[in-house]
Amino acid sequence: MTTSPSVDGTAEHSQHSAPVQLSNRGLRPNEVVAIARHDAPLTLAVDALTALEASAAIIDRILDGGESVYGVTTGFGALADTPIPPERSAELQIALVRSHAAGMGPLVEREVVRATMALRARSLARGYSGVRPIVVETMLAVLNAGITPAVHEHGSLGASGDLAPLAHCALCIIGEGEVLDAGGRTRPAAEALDAAKIKPIRLRAKEGLALINGTDGMLGMLVLALADLDHLLKVADVAAALTIEGLLGTDRVFAADLQALRPQLGQAASAANLCALLADSAIVASHKFGDSRVHDAYSLRCTPAVHGAARDTIAHATSVSNRELASAIDNPMILPDGRVESCGNFHGAPIAQVADFLAISIADLGALAERRTDRLLDVGRSQGLAPFLAADAGVDSGLMIAHYTQASMVAVNRRLAVPASVDTIPTSAMQEDHVSMGWGACRKLRQAVQNLGQILAVEITAGARAVEARSPHQPAPATAIALAQIRQRVPGIGSDRWLAPELAAIHDLIVQASFLSKIEAGSVQLQ
User: Fold this and answer.
1) N or C: which end of the chain has fewer CB within 10 A?
2) Does residue 70 carry a catalytic annotation?
3) Where residue 39 sits, what CATH number does that domain have?
4) Which residue stretches of 66-151 are H helix?
């Protein structure tokens, strides 16, 4: 993973990431993450500049010729049949941005807004939207200055794109509305732009519509979630490995020849990780002979099936995301041959549906982690561990309530797994009679990802205690590295103490790239 998850938007922002060049090919996932989370500066490539100039010239010809073109010389949405004189086209675009900046609720996270703006600039730079280079250049200047438009939680239905969120971003570059400056202070946009020596632009025909007619908010959230999940799926395998050792489970069920009988790619990867993580475990070897158990419970034995299914879901979502990153999203589209054609590419269904699919997989991953945790804490099923992994059960409650906290987040993630993409609401006088709800699908996906990291933190806390309880038998070299990192943050079994800070510390540890890189430095390559 190239960055650490920060779905709560509180991560520190670095000014030292390598510059990202915005060309007319689009952006790569790691570039989106670098811009959103690490303030990577953006520059505009020559090919994008050329494409922008050619597309803008087509709008000039339309205005000169007096053609009737949606969004250029007509109104919008249900007002598409209302003609607009060319001399009022600029007024039309400004009015559009102002009226559509109608979001409500709390502000969304800084990283989401930065991803949204960068992705909108990416789409415009493809040269199919008819905007002048100055529009994209101003967007990049705002991002490079660390200025973040104030974008609200509610306002996008995910068809005609993320209208309200993008309108709040567009409002900033015309010098209106509110922003958060580089120091996180709320300021009028005009004041922040002036301080950064950025001149607000005056929109002309098509530009207001082009600025708001995209799926960039939901795509940005999907890209960030996928970056986090790529990391957390490996963490989930580490958590399972600790639990398997702690419960005196076996690694024989993860053998490659057994897994090959069911050739699911994600399952094979997870099983290979578990084999690598448990290799040379003295704890596993300690009960290889003389153990009366025939096999482990499903929550251990079937881990690769569940973790693997999530991996396959992520692979599918990544393929959709990558195609979106290479897309030009707008309406109407300005084609190189001079045609201006309406389309439905702004509909968020592809993103909405994979976001919902990911939420389902996350809910199942969390449920499995909770079942493994419960088994660690139940004296009747934990193979001799102390009740709730307490130092003095009865006086001490150990991790009893940590499990409650974990279970509550599992329950929340189950609710978040209810699809948003099936919940269309017709709007705009029935012109927009089917919407994707992609923004909502991606908002709840972010919360589910955050919860999953915390659910895994509870399992890892319990698994670490259980592994230590198996002393003098030693864990595998890989899980020993994980355990050493955990103990650098929090102590092991002892009298009851304030647990909340410890759980937070473990969560902070496991979402960092260094947690896995240190394990892999011990010659374990996780897939």
Assistant:
1) C
2) yes
3) 1.10.275.10
4) 89-100, 110-124, 133-144
